[in-house]
Amino acid sequence: MKFKQITHRLNTREASVESLQKRRFWLQCQRRYTFQPIYKIDGRLMAIELLTVVMHPDEPEVRIPPDQYFLAVPSRTRLMVIEEQLNLLHEWESIFLGYGILASVNVEGPTLVAMKDHQPILALINKMPWVRFELVEHITQPHAVTLADMSEFGPLWLDDFGTGVANFSALSEMRYDYIKVARDLFIMLRNSEEGRNLFTMLLQLMNRYCKGVIVEGVETEDEWRDVQNSPAYAAQGYFLSRPIPFDQLESVLTRLS
Fold first, then answer.
1. Per-residue b/e over 45-57, b at no fewer than 16 CB within 10 Å?
2. What is the distance between the alpha carbons of residues 62 and 196, in angstroms, rounded to a whole number?
3. Alpha carbons 135 and 104: distance in angstroms, whole number
4. Where are the alpha helices (DSSP H) in 191-220?
5. 156-175 b/e with 16+ CB inside 10 Å = b?
6. What element of type H or E holds 213?
7. What is the pLDDT of residue 1?
8. Which domains does the chain have, with CATH numbers?
9. What's the rounded Cα separation, in Å, for the pair 228 and 166?
10. 3-state SS, residue 238
11. pLDDT at 19
12. Is the pLDDT confidence value at 164 over 80?
């Protein structure tokens, strides 16, 4: 009996140490920011999406997926990051106002809900009507109703339609300003004539639920031409532009040639 108790205590202690090490790892991670332009199908610049690059100082050359990082850090850290991102965007306010473009910031549903009680973030949002929050996953009821009433965040975008819970149930629960179609869905439907026809019909249907559809992950000229010939409103991806450091924001193309 004593042996089992000792073993249990040792296992509990090891688990606690491991948990502490993981927590320390995530809190030691560092961030830097880039952006990727979003272009309308006529080639005009519509917006930029702020992108977070995460790395650990022990291996600065290794990029950590941002979704893993944001899932691992506590809520207060996530709010701190949002505030940090908004302050960065505010530094470039003259560019967004001068060119009449938007800036999108990725956010998870629970974080968006928590932002309602975070006054520094609300104050920044009030100064920047050109910022849009891009939900990286749709929130199912009852939170969707809560978000629909949060006018202080401005119009919301839905990211990665066609993956996870970002599907047609999301469109029926609340209205989004713009909806982004995931690259995986776009590529899957391009593989056949039937799929391409379905893609057109899908976007036509989605346009009834939003101002426009943005296709993500456009990587070739053929893909870009397909998007231009579809009911899509805009697109982003490596063919149009790779991620760019913020110090080059002023020189980004406002219209594709």
1. bbbbbbebebbee
2. 37
3. 10
4. 193-206
5. bbbbbbbeeebeeebbebbe
6. strand 212-215
7. 52
8. 30-251 (3.20.20.450)
9. 23
10. coil
11. 67
12. no
SS3 122: helix
- Please report, rounded to a whole number, the percentage of residues in the chain having pLDDT higher than 90: 63
> What mean pLDDT is reported for the chain?
86
Give the residue carrying structure tokens 């397909």.
226
Tokens of 173: 């629960």
The string of DSSP codes covering 144-182 is HHHHHT-GGG-SEEEEEETBTTBSHHHHHHS--SEEEEP
For residue 135, the cross-strand partners are 107, 158
Written as six digits, the tokens of 8 are 């249990």
Q: Could you tell me which residue, 54 or 255, shows the higher pLDDT? A: 54
**What is the model's pTM?**
0.86
Give the span between the Cα atoms of 232 and 198, in whole angstroms: 13
Task: Describe the crossing of helices 119-127 and 75-91 by its angle, rounded to 10 degrees.
Answer: 20
Tokens representing 94? 């003259």
